[in-house]
Amino acid sequence: MSKRNKGGRLVYSTEAGRLCPQCQRPVADCVCGSDRPTALGDGIVRLHRETKGRGGKAVTLVKGVPLGSPELKALAKTLKQKCGVGGSLKGDVIEIQGDQRQLIKSELENRGYTVKIAGG
C-alpha cells in the first residue's frame, strides 16, 4: 500500500515507510538533511545546572538549540569565550563549566532564541 499527496508525489509506502520530501528516499536513508539538526523540539532553549558525576562541580547544559553541527560548534565556542571558561559539545548538548546560566541566557536572548532556565 502506498499513499500519495494532492500533487501525486509518493509520501508513504509500506515497503520503505515515511519518505523524505526532498530526495524521495526513506527517512532513515535520507542524505539531503545530514546538516540539519536532529530534532527541533519545541523551539525553546533550556539551560540546566548539573553536578552529578562531576565531583560536586557545577556545569551548565544548553539543550534544544535548533542548529546543525557546524553552527552549534561555533555557538559553543562563542559561549565559552563569553563566559571565560572551558566547555565541550557532546552530541547536541553544549556543556559550559560553572553555573553560567544568567550570562548564557542573556547572550542567547540577544541572538533571538527563547530561553528558559530549567532544573536546579
What does this structure look like?
This protein is of the alpha+beta class and 120 residues long. It has helices at residues 69-83, 101-110; strands at residues 2-4, 10-13, 17-18, 44-50, 59-63, 87-90, 93-97, 114-117. The protein has two domains: 1-34, no CATH class; 44-117, SUI1-like domain (Translation Initiation Factor Eif1, 2-Layer Sandwich). A hairpin with a 3-residue loop joins strand 2 (10-13) and strand 3 (17-18). The longest helix is centred in the middle third of the chain and has 15 residues, at 69-83. It is elongated and about 55 Å long. The mean pLDDT is 81. Helix content is 21%, strand content 28%. A five-stranded mixed beta sheet has the order 6-7-5-4-8, covered by helices on one side. The chain has a three-stranded antiparallel beta sheet with strand order 1-2-3, with no helix packed on it. The protein contains two helices and eight strands. It starts with a strand and ends with a strand.
